Amino acid sequence: MEPGRQRENPPGSGEPESGEWREESAAVETGARDDTLKNRSGDGGNEETTNEKQYEEELDPRIQEELEHLNQASDEINRVELQLDEARSSYRRILTDSARKLNAQGSQLGACIEKARPYYEARRLAKEAQQETQKAALRYERAVSMHTAAREMVYVAEQGLLADRNTLDPTWQEMLNHATAKVNEAEEERLRSEREHQRVTQLCQEAEAHVQTLQKALKRVIIKSKPYFELKAQFNHILEEHKSKVVQLEERVAKVKTRYSVALRNLEQISEHIHAQRGRIRAAKERNRARGGRSSPVGAESEGVIQAGAYAGWVEKHRDVGWGRREKAGSDSMSVISLQTIASDLEKFDSVEHLGDLSDVGSIIGEEKEAESERGFRVDDRIVEREVVNLSRQDSTLSLQ
Question: Which of 10, 24, 57, 77 has the most neighbouring CB atoms within 10 Å?
Answer without folding.
Answer: 77
